[in-house]
Design a protein that fits this description.
The chain is of the alpha+beta class and 75 residues long. It is built from one helix and five strands. Helices cover 20% and strands 39% of the residues. The radius of gyration is 13 Å and the shape is globular.
Length: 75
């Protein structure tokens, strides 16, 4: 059975602003990180995929899963 999983949404620094990228394509541009994060979260939830939020240095600072998480929390 083949799963059609959408690529993760990445919120990345973009010059003086921020952008959301999915599958190598820019899906939105923003002046503030907070608005980029909100937009990226909505896109990731809609596509049931991961949302990776990067810091200004480009490293992933936070990651959220809105789909079929292969490593769900145990509790």
């Amino acid at each position: 059975m083949t799963r059609n999983k959408k690529p993760s949404v990445h919120t990345l620094p973009n010059g003086n602003g921020w952008k959301n990228v999915q599958g190598g394509k820019t899906v939105s541009n923003h002046y503030k990180k907070s608005t980029a994060k909100s937009s990226g979260r909505r896109k990731a939830k809609r596509d049931k995929t991961e949302h990776r939020i990067h810091n200004r240095d480009g490293k992933i600072g936070r990651s959220n899963s809105y789909g079929n998480d292969p490593y769900p929390p145990r509790g």
